[in-house]
């Protein structure tokens, strides 16, 4: 009897101990901090300035970032002139400071609960709940689930987004981010949030993503600027005016993007037989087939072959991708296999009706006309494709998955003009 | 030591109390419409609830009987000792009772056989492919991590053609009509679950599974994934809209098709997506 009760005590205590440790916050211990841009401490090559051996300049950049955007993710500051809705009021539930800039032109938004309860959760809170596990605290695409993703979650910090409606290389329009969050990205791990968030909540998240993105871009700009100084001249580097003007130039780019969407001058050509065949001939006659392949299966010669690609991407520990790539791709090979973020990518297989950036004709127009930011897809408008030619290719791309014979039966090196004859034949 | 019988009686009473209370609280009761928590909106829902309640009453009745016997036995025969600490009553040693064992085997077996036979019609009408309604499919729904891709036939009324409407997480159909969908999975096991309509069907990679259902009442319902499918399982929800008339459904499909065919920014006025002139 005594033995039994002792066993009971032991079991009970160990159960409680396990339960208590499971309930603890140990996993999330420590303060939330922004991840710094790698250029802060590493030499990333000649295109990007770095502060590898410049600790004093590093401190200057850190101080400037703190001053501009707040010390940590839980205390958000919105610099004056940041193009966000209501001056950043959607970022968090509790706002300290207020809208009046005062002598120190910073609006402080605190994500930690204050005295006044707020009716809305705010972009920061929604981001933490729904986005952080992939995109990470700083929007660096480094959340805990990110290593399991292919394609990899977006790193917002360089301010580059793939599926946009603004001219190539420019920050996205608000509606591009809104569409991505609302409908997700087909064929990737980005889900649609339409059934999970209200439209108002999606606006809040859009604001927070823009905040993280502009913050990251400012950080890169500050590092670039600081890198032009010698460590000894750190005292003169990054005065208040320079910092503000660098941040302003980032805001200006974003603000400009909000009114610079590319709108096709002419509406889509009717997807007639002739138009589809013209699109096919353009596809075969231009550089499209170099990447997408002659059968548009995403296996063109400009890219490394699928087998090597699979070996690099899926052939072992994801963190050792770079090493595998080095082993498998010869140094002088000019073949493509990754995007600007260093993530592996392949050209789309156009035989499958899966369109990451959206399936509307206008989405495909944007992909062809202005390319995909950061990826290997270049812009084709206005040269070599004008509006009509772009629409012909759009019509061809939309028709191809339901008519694979379009390419398999295409004459080799189709000379221009056969399309019309073909159309008459049908 | 009669206090133990009271503890056990309290546990039994509160359990039964929870079930009684659940009938009056929409959060505790089965998922139904917001207006009337006891109104089941689908044909299969009524059949399934019928089965559910029969089983609930049978098991509830058995639960009450066994708990009454248990508590009565504890109350009637408490642990009693004399001044020297010896038990007052002598224990009875028994080899069991064949009659009792026969009773408590035959009755549950009978109940199980009854349930097995009684539910066959419901199962057949919901799952047997022969009972599928002879209607053109409303949509083909492909589950993937972590969303429902819904493909509605376009103007040619045929699935898997270039004019199909493809939307994410948005199921629309007309009330009081049998709806047939084809369920697929693009990656792992998912489960298509319409709680208010009591429809649940696993989506299995490599299979195309027909699912059919109906709904009496127009309104908004929900679609969830009921099979743990990965880290984003909780995100895998959908909106279900039941329209009053076929016309309403066609209007929705036409609207979505127009958006899907958009080739210029300002094609549809008032779509609210032109945020360019937003006040920054």
Any descriptors?
heterodimer; A: 426 residues; mainly alpha; Cytochrome Bc1 Complex, Chain D, domain 2; 2 domains; three-stranded antiparallel sheet; 15 helices; disordered C terminus; B: 280 residues; alpha+beta; Immunoglobulin-like; five-stranded mixed sheet; 10 strands; 35% helix; elongated
- Which chains have the largest interface? A-B, 42 and 36 residues
The tally of strands of chain A reads 3
Q: N-to-C terminal Cα separation of chain B, in Å?
A: 75 Å
Order of strands in the sheet with the most strands of chain A?
Answer: 1-3-2
Please count the beta strands of chain B (DSSP E, at least 2 residues each).
Answer: 10
> Can you summarize the main beta sheet of chain A?
3 strands, antiparallel
Strands across the major sheet of chain B, in which order? 3-2-1-5-8
Q: What name goes with the CATH superfamily of the largest domain in chain B?
A: Cupredoxins -  blue copper proteins
Structural class of chain A: mainly alpha
Q: Please indicate the count of domains of chain A.
A: 2
Instruction: Give a quick account of the main beta sheet of chain B: strands, pairing sense, barrel closure.
Output: 5 strands, mixed
Strand content of chain B: 15-25%
Radius of gyration of chain B: 28 Å
Distance between the termini of chain A: 93 Å
Would you state the CATH class of the largest domain in chain B? Answer: Mainly Beta
Explain the overall architecture:
The complex is a heterodimer of chains A (426) and B (280). Chain A is 42% helix and 3% strand. Chain A is mainly alpha-helical and 426 residues long. Chain A has two domains: 38-257, no CATH class; 273-303 and 346-425, Cytochrome c-like domain (Cytochrome Bc1 Complex, Chain D, domain 2, Orthogonal Bundle), CATH 1.10.760.10. Chain A has a three-stranded antiparallel β-sheet with strand order 1-3-2. In chain A, helix 8 crosses helix 13 (387-399), helix 10 (306-314) runs antiparallel to helix 11 and helix 12 crosses helix 13 (387-399). The model of chain A is unreliable at 98-105 and 416-426 (pLDDT under 50). Chain B is α+β, with helices and mostly antiparallel strands and 280 residues long. The model of chain B is unreliable at 267-280 (pLDDT under 50). Chain B folds into two domains: 3-79 and 97-126; 135-260, Cupredoxins -  blue copper proteins (Immunoglobulin-like), CATH 2.60.40. The longest helix of chain B has 34 residues, at 43-76. In chain B, strands 3-2-1-5-8 form a five-stranded mixed β-sheet. In chain B, strands 4-10-9-6-7 form a five-stranded mixed β-sheet.
